[in-house]
Design goal:
binds nicotinamide-adenine-dinucleotide; globular; Rossmann fold; 469 residues; six-stranded parallel sheet; binds uridine-5'-diphosphate-xylopyranose; 2 domains
């Protein structure tokens, strides 16, 4: 295949938008068109004010501003973009199935298949198809099956190129990735396709960081990387409960084990539980794959990571209830943070949703402040759980745009997201406006507990045994 000059990406979400913006920035000689069925999303990517793009990521609006209209385009004309492109990235959502076989575990590949069929229908010349979405191992064979039975003589090469960016640091991660992984067929045509994609990344990624493997290793490595990362969080979180019983301090334990170079310091931050659209979905998928091959012990092993995470979220909510004298009925509890981590507006699988749901069952009144999450998203997240009527969620939860208002008159503050701005608040002012005893449940070990105690707060951090009475 000749040099790639036209790329299309199907799916303008948290992955498609930022990854393609970075390719466009680094490769001005390549025309990059990102398409999506969601008109509102495309409209937002094209918003005149680049601060209104639909994905909040530090630095992203600058990258988009540089390339948009030059060689980066956002469009709803999916067929046209497929037709024109030599290389097509598929970056659509692959959520956990909510129906039928594999419900609650398997990845729903409905959108992947729709893309493959659309590509098959539209293509008139040879193309390279790149799996950017996270997919179960061996999905490429299904895509190939669909694409090779079109009868129009068009040749397709299928590559796996999973994305490892983390939200909140997407621009940094894309600019200087630890590695780029490209899986392809070990045939002459497969090798040419792999090289075409290597050449694109080589515009800014050092060659030794571009790893090439067979397609299946690449697909499985993505699920595995997420499983390993999530396992670290569940491992440290499992120890928080022991710390709370034994006067060990989880921050000290994390530091002590993290200085062993074989363990390393990252991803050992105790928390209210991991969230995000990837970890749970990908581990459940791994569990499903293992079970489908009859590998019961392997499935059970990884499933425990999710079980521990669910336990941690529930435990946090229960601690709030217990500490508020075993009832939160009618009590106002302020939530600082709703996003699943700082520096993103994404709330998918955020621990805050589950903690709120638990407290609402106990008739608490919750007031939420998050610097980037809009009101309608908070209600949509709660409604999606289907625990109660939408009106009841509206009655039980208020979304407030001023943090000081959010905690005025409250019995307690729960920190659910580690937004930096929380650290700089006027905590004396907050204390003065709360009911006493004023309590803080720090689900991120973000705040300086000693300083807060000096003001008069009762503080409960994760994995420390300081039990304020
Ligand atoms: P997303 O839901 O934000 O975006 C997916 C987009 O695809 C949506 O806007 C949807 O409208 C669009 N879409 C679906 N079917 C389509 C079709 N047939 N034609 C055109 N558009 C279509 O999802 P995301 O977070 O960007 O994730 C995409 C994939 O990347 C998933 O497989 C996910 O597991 C993986 N991934 C996500 C992250 C992350 O941090 N979010 C990181 C690495 C990998
Ligand atoms: C993750 C992977 O890191 C990334 O490589 C992959 O491409 C997508 O999935 P993401 O979910 O965006 O990225 O964020 P990440 O930083 O991994 O955090 C996931 C969750 O774990 C967040 O809720 C975060 O708060 C939590 N976490 C992370 C902890 O509780 N403790 C930690 O030490 C690290």
């Amino acid at each position: 295949m000749e040099n790639i000059t036209k790329i299309c990406c199907i799916g303008a979400g948290y992955v498609g938008g930022p990854t393609m913006a970075m390719i466009a920035k680094k490769c001005p000689h390549i025309q990059v068109t990102v398409v999506d069925l969601n008109e509102a999303r495309i409209k937002a990517w094209n918003d005149e004010d680049v601060n209104n793009i639909p994905v909040y990521e530090p630095g992203l609006s600058d990258v988009v501003a540089e390339a948009r209209g030059r060689n980066l385009f956002f469009s709803t004309e999916v067929d046209k973009a497929i037709d024109e492109a030599q290389m097509i990235f598929i970056s659509v959502n692959t959520p956990t199935k909510t129906y039928g076989a594999g419900k609650g575990q398997a990845a729903d590949l409905k959108w992947i298949e729709l893309c493959a069929r659309q590509i098959a229908n539209i293509s008139k010349d040879n193309k390279i198809i790149v799996e950017k979405s996270t997919l179960p191992v061996r999905t490429a064979s299904a895509i190939k099956d669909i694409l090779t039975h079109t009868g129009n003589g068009v040749q397709f090469q299928i590559l796996s190129n999973p994305e490892f960016l983390a939200e909140g640091t997407a621009v940094e991660d894309l600019d200087a990735p630890d590695r780029v992984l490209i899986g392809g067929d070990n045939t002459p045509e497969g090798k040419v396709a792999v090289q075409a994609l290597v050449d694109i990344y080589a515009n800014w990624v050092p060659k030794e960081r571009i790893l090439t493997t067979n397609v299946w290793s690449s697909e499985l490595s993505k699920l595995t990387a997420n499983a390993f990362l999530a396992q670290r969080v569940s491992s440290i979180n499992s120890l928080t409960e022991i710390c709370e019983q034994t006067e060990a301090d989880i921050n000290e334990v994390a530091k002590a084990i993290g200085t062993d170079s074989r363990i390393g310091p990252k991803f050992l931050k105790a928390s209210v539980g991991f969230g995000g659209s990837c970890f749970q979905k990908d581990i459940l998928n791994l569990v499903y794959i293992a079970r489908s091959y009859g590998l019961q012990e392997v499935a059970d092993y990884w499933e425990q990571v999710i079980i521990m995470n669910d336990h941690q979220k529930r435990r946090f909510a229960n601690q709030i209830i217990k500490n508020l004298y075993n009832t939160v009925n009618g009590k106002k509890i302020a939530f600082f943070g709703w996003a699943f981590k700082k520096d993103t507006n994404d709330t998918r699988e955020s621990a805050a949703i589950y903690v709120a749901d638990h407290l609402l069952n106990e008739q608490a009144h919750i007031s939420v402040y998050d610097p980037k999450v809009p009101e309608n998203q908070v209600y949509a997240d709660l409604d999606y759980l289907n625990t109660r009527e939408a009106e009841e969620n509206k009655a039980g939860v208020q979304v407030i745009t001023d943090p000081y208002e959010a905690c005025k008159g409250s019995h307690a503050i729960a920190v659910l997201t580690e937004w930096d701005e929380f650290k700089g608040y006027d905590w004396q002012r907050i204390y003065d406006n709360m009911l006493k005893p004023a309590k803080i449940f720090d689900g991120r070990n973000l705040l300086d507990a000693d300083k807060l105690r000096a003001i008069g707060f009762q503080v409960r951090s994760i994995g420390t045994n300081v039990l304020d009475k």
